[in-house]
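Troubleshooting: if your tokenizer reports a length mismatch, compare your output against this known-good record of 260 residues.
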Amino acid sequence: MQQSDAECVMRVYGGFSRALLSVADIGALAPSKGNDARVSAGVAVYRNNVRAAYLRVLNDAFPVVFRLVGDGFFRFMAHEYFHAHPPQARLVARYGDHLPAFLEQFEPARVLPYLPDIARLEIAWLKAYHAEESVSLRPDELFGIVGEHADRARLTLHPSTALLASPHPIHAIWSHNHNKKDGPLRLSQGGERVLIVRPDGDVIVETIDAATFLVIEAIAAGERLGAAVEAALDQQPDAVIAETMRIIANSGIVTAATVE
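Known-good structure output:
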């Protein structure tokens, strides 16, 4: 292919991409008539189909957000999101990665301040669902390896493990809507810390206390268990570490342990 031919092809594809992503009328982008008008009409149909497909992607990825805001608001939000963050990732499933940050700046969503963190929770759920498989250590296996040398132990977390802390009761909101419960939801005051993991076939989403959150967070950052516990105690001096270890051991988030 000659250079001029390659440049021509790039211009065609570039124009086609701009037409798909633009909010302008197709005719305003490339006024046409006759055969060209039929091409423009075809591009308009294709653009609508592409946008409808990405609306379905968001709908599938964020069912709780959809349930919270309703069909009309969700469609409007998805339209604005499409133009703020046009599809670029090769994996269609990653299209909604920017939605939490978008919602934080989306003025119509300000009346639901917890919505960005609900979106973050749904992304974490989706990533956990698609995470690679790994076998978790049983509690007796974990304690057998760590023994009396917990301070020198390094723990490997399950690939699906994720943490999310929010000033809002996001687990209660998410759980109520994820399970499609009807009726009013009574919310406790204050935020929640959430652990997401898929040790077996199902994704588990549960609340955890501050100390357990801090210990897991430090382990995920590469700290030894002893240093992770110390960091948690610095912020939560009254933490019951035995209970924290019981939660970690029973959660299925540890797939390997070594004592160094």
